[in-house]
Every structure is written in structure tokens, then in C-alpha cells.
Automatic annotation (TrEMBL):
Leader sequence segment: none
NCBIfam families (alphabetical): sss (TIGR00813)
Record keywords, A-Z: Cell membrane, Ion transport, Membrane, Sodium, Symport, Transmembrane, Transmembrane helix, Transport
Family of the protein in this entry: Belongs to the sodium:solute symporter (SSF) (TC 2.A.21) family.
Main location: membrane
PROSITE patterns noted in UniProt: NA_SOLUT_SYMP_1 (PS00456), NA_SOLUT_SYMP_2 (PS00457), NA_SOLUT_SYMP_3 (PS50283)
Annotated organism of origin: Polycladomyces zharkentensis
InterPro entries: Na/Glc_symporter_sf (IPR038377), Na/solute_symporter (IPR001734), Na/solute_symporter_CS (IPR018212), Sodium:Solute_Symporter (IPR050277)
Name the record gives this protein: Cation/acetate symporter ActP
Entry's localization field: Cell membrane
Length: 501
């Protein structure tokens, strides 16, 4: 075990538990629990959004993909960056102005509450569960590599911490854990990028010249990793549309007090996320040159150890320990966001508004929210332990595909289509959700490639149109005058913020 890394891991655990204790004293109401009392300022929320969005897959995964596959790995950086622009420019502010705690709040504003809340809760819990199992399984493997802890111990450790953050500190603790993570991640990434550039006299051109000399010009051109254009297109669509439908990302916009702070948080997040994804280029190509592909693959065939090994090559054991601790904090922040998202969907949408018809007391809602957090966390730990021998990469693709197919069409139609109604929302969500899952089940992710009924690894290219078609047909086959009457009110509120504060 790396003693220095273990010490830094322990410091991060103690720091985040201290934040949770502080936040628990300030979390007394449901608004505190789900939205941090709407007390988060714009710049704080911008940093927290960055912390929620820049996952371990971005930090460790993209660096490894670039180091092993060159230009095609960089496509992930471009995809995630461009995808977030869709969130920030199209969805974020209207959603914040027309919702309260969850995605379903916005849909229920002008549609029938019980059907749309039930359907939205189902899709939110499915997306969060798929994404969380993938994060936990990946985290178990990474911490085993970094610290030498057993896979099961790693999963249980991370699972218990994420339950503590959310159940006791709610959104306030989750927010500050994400802020701490974002600061650590950006500090580590900037230092690592400067060390890489310094190795080439701070000349990006010289770095690429040496990449070309060592691996050939084709390493800097597309076609090494993705050979089927339809696979590229489907993956790109899932990233682009799916990010704007991920519940744990969208609920962050409910934590600010007004529309102005929401816009400020958008600006902060765009700058931080933009710089981060640009710097992954230096990490990936730097690792390919300064560490070498053989050593990276010897540590982890998927390339996830590229960034930590680059840190060790340039800064010795302490920098390796620091970057490993950053990766640990990154995992904690993302899974905490997923837990509070799934718990909110069950406790706020399904229990309080569907089962209890909006009649649950404040104390009852808080109790259910905390138990829902514990329940979601325990189930996720168990599923992650069961899935430890499985290749769970398809779960990430599935989460993005479901978000793109089930959530984004109904968000956009609800905000911008007057004729849209409850039947359209429920049909669209269920069609997108079910088609995504079925297509993945018969894809090369779970079947032999030559026997797969659906040839692409990501279903978005077919499931997104199906989700949209379901929403359109459901709407056109029924009328709901009340939903049409409330459209103008929702539109003005979503675009101006009037009535939202």
C-alpha cells in the first residue's frame, strides 16, 4: 500500500466528514435537504456543477483513452464539453425557474402530477442506478490499484461515505464535497499539465511533433478506436442529448436563490469545465510520451492509470499520492450527487406527491428522504458487489441513452410545445426508457458481436427518435386543455424567473 496516498485519502475522508457534520446542523427542512436551502451562490454552484460533472471517467478514463488511442480518445473530451454547453444554454435556466427539487417538478407544473411524477421518478431512479453501479464498480477497481484495498472493501467504504454525506448533510454537504473535489481536481490537473508542457519547453507543437515521431501521424488522426461511423454517431448523440437529461446534473440548478445566480453559475461552470477538458489533451498525450503505452497497459488494460502514472513520472511518489487522492475525491463527489438525485425521485416525487398526494408533513418528508438515501445507497452497494466480475461499461452508455431518450424530449416539449400533454410525457418517458434497455440487452454489450440483434454498442441513434416519437404520438392522440392553458404561464416563468423566487 502507498502510505502517502493512504494518508491523503484519510485527510480527504476526515475533511468531507467534517463538512457533513457542519451541514447536518443546517439541514432542517426539505428545502435544505433537496436544494441546500437555495443558499448556494452563483460562483459556488458553478464550482459544484463542475465537481459534479467532471467524473473519474473524465479524469482517469479520457487521459487513458488518449494515451492509448490518440485523437479518437480526445473525441470524448470534445463530446463531454459540447454536451455541457447544451445543458447550460438550453436547459439549465428554464428548468431552474420552473422547478423546485427534481426534474418531475417542472413537468408537473402544467401536466397531471401523479402520472408524470411516477414516470419521471422511474426514469430518474433507473438512470441514477445504472450510472452509480458503473461508478462504484470502476471505483472498486481503481482504489484496489491505487491503495491495494480489496474490491469489496473499497466498494463498501465509498458506499458508506456517500450514504453519510447525503443522509446527514443533504444537498449542502453534497455541494461542498463537490466544491472541494473540483478545487483539488483543477489544482492537480493544472500542475500536471504545466509539468508536461514544461518537459517540451511549453510548446504544444513540439509535444505533438514528438507524439507523431513516436507513434506515427495516424495517432493524431481519427479512425484508430472507432471504425464504424454509426457507432460514433450514436455515441455522440447519447453524450450530446443524454447529458442534458441527467437528473443529478440538472438538480444542481435548484440550489441557487434566483435566476441571476443561476446564470452566474453557468458562466463559472463553462469556464472551469472548458479548461479541464482542454487540459486532458496534455495529460493523455503526455502519458503516451513520458510513461509509455506498455507501462500504462501493464497497470490497467483500459488505461485508467495513465494520469496517476504520469504524475509519478513527473513528480515522484508525493504527486502520485496527490493525484490518487484527487481521483478518490472525484468518485465520492459524483456518487453523492447520484444518491441525492435518486433519493429525491423516490421520496419527493413518488412517496410525497404520488402515494401521499402531497399531504406528507415536513417532518415525514425529511424522514423518508433520509431513509430513501440509505436505501438507494445500500441497494447500489449490493448491486456493485454482484456486478464486480462484469464489464459494466455498457451501464454508462445505458444511463446516457436513457437520459437522452426518456428525459430530454419531454423536457424540451414541456418547455416549448403548447400542445404537449400528460399522455405525451408518460408515453415518451416509457418508450425511451424501455427501448434503450431492450436495445442494450440485444447489443454487442451483452451478446457475441456476430449474434447481436442490434449491431451498435450505444442505442441512442434509434432510442432517441423512438422516445421523441412516443411523446409526439401520445400528445397527438389526446387533448388536455388545462395543460395548454398553463403553457404561457410556464413559458414566461421559465424564461424570466418571475414567480420562481
Amino acid at each position: 500500500m502507498n502510505t502517502m496516498a493512504f494518508t491523503l485519502f484519510a485527510v480527504i475522508v476526515l475533511l468531507t466528514l467534517g463538512i457533513t457534520y457542519w451541514a447536518s446542523k443546517r439541514t432542517q427542512t426539505t428545502t435544505d435537504f433537496y436544494a441546500a436551502g437555495r443558499s448556494i451562490s452563483g460562483w459556488q454552484n458553478g464550482i459544484a456543477i463542475s465537481g459534479d460533472y467532471m467524473s473519474a471517467a473524465s479524469f482517469l478514463g479520457i487521459a487513458g483513452l488518449i494515451a492509448l488511442n490518440g485523437f479518437d480518445g480526445f473525441l470524448y473530451s470534445v463530446g463531454w464539453l459540447v454536451a455541457y454547453l447544451v445543458v447550460l444554454i438550453v436547459v439549465a435556466e428554464p428548468l431552474r425557474n420552473s422547478g423546485r427539487y427534481t426534474l418531475a417538478d417542472m413537468l408537473a407544473y402544467r401536466l397531471k402530477a401523479k402520472p408524470v411524477r411516477s414516470a419521471a421518478a422511474l426514469s430518474t431512479m433507473a438512470i441514477s442506478t445504472f450510472y452509480m453501479i458503473a461508478q462504484l464498480v470502476g471505483a472498486g477497481g481503481i482504489i484496489k490499484l491505487l491503495l491495494g484495498l480489496q474490491y469489496e472493501v473499497s466498494i463498501i467504504l465509498i458506499g458508506v461515505l456517500m450514504i453519510l454525506y447525503v443522509a446527514f448533510g443533504g444537498m449542502l454537504a453534497t455541494t461542498w464535497v463537490q466544491i472541494v473535489k473540483a478545487v483539488l481536481l483543477m489544482t492537480g490537473t493544472i500542475l500536471l499539465s504545466l509539468l508536461v508542457l514544461g518537459h517540451f519547453g511549453f510548446s504544444v507543437v513540439e509535444m505533438f511533433n514528438q507524439v507523431s515521431a513516436k507513434y506515427g501521424q495516424s495517432f493524431l488522426e481519427p479512425g484508430k478506436l472507432y471504425k464504424n461511423p454509426l457507432d460514433n454517431l450514436s455515441l455522440g448523440l447519447a453524450l450530446l442529448a443524454g447529458t442534458a437529461g441527467l437528473p443529478h446534473i440538472l438538480i444542481r440548478f435548484y440550489t441557487v436563490p434566483n435566476a441571476k445566480e443561476a446564470r452566474i453559475s453557468v458562466a463559472w461552470a463553462m469556464v472551469i469545465i472548458g479548461f479541464f477538458y482542454i487540459m486532458t489533451t496534455f495529460l493523455g498525450f503526455g502519458a503516451a510520451l513520458l510513461v509509455g503505452q506498455e507501462k500504462i497497459m501493464a497497470a490497467d488494460k483500459a488505461g485508467n492509470m495513465a494520469a496517476p502514472l504520469l504524475a509519478e513520472a513527473l513528480g515522484g511518489n508525493f504527486f502520485l499520492a496527490f493525484i490518487s487522492a484527487v481521483a478518490f475525491a472525484t468518485i465520492l463527489a459524483v456518487v453523492a450527487g447520484l444518491v441525492i438525485s435518486a433519493a429525491g425521485a423516490f421520496a419527493h416525487d413518488f412517496y410525497s406527491n404520488v402515494l401521499r398526494g402531497g399531504q406528507a408533513t415536513e417532518r415525514e418528508q425529511m424522514r423518508v428522504a433520509k431513509w430513501a438515501s440509505i436505501g438507494v445507497g445500500v441497494v447500489s452497494i449490493i448491486l456493485a458487489l454482484i456486478a464486480k466480475e462484469q464489464n459494466v461499461a455498457f451501464l454508462v452508455a445505458l444511463a446516457f441513452a436513457v437520459a437522452a431518450s426518456a428525459n430530454l424530449p419531454v423536457i424540451v416539449f414541456s418547455l416549448f410545445w403548447k400542445r404537449f400533454n400528460t399522455a405525451g410525457a408518460v408515453t415518451g418517458i416509457l418508450t425511451g426508457l424501455i427501448s434503450s434497455i431492450l436495445l442494450v440487452l440485444v447489443s454487442p454489450n451483452l451478446m457475441e458481436p456476430d449474434q447481436a440483434l442490434f449491431p451498435l454498442k450505444n442505442p441512442a441513434i434509434l432510442s432517441v427518435p423512438l422516445g421523441m416519437l412516443g411523446a409526439v404520438l401520445g400528445t397527438l392522440l389526446s387533448r388536455e386543455p388545462e395543460a395548454e392553458r398553463k403553457f404561457t404561464e410556464l413559458y414566461v416563468r421559465s424564461q424570466t424567473g418571475i414567480g420562481a423566487e
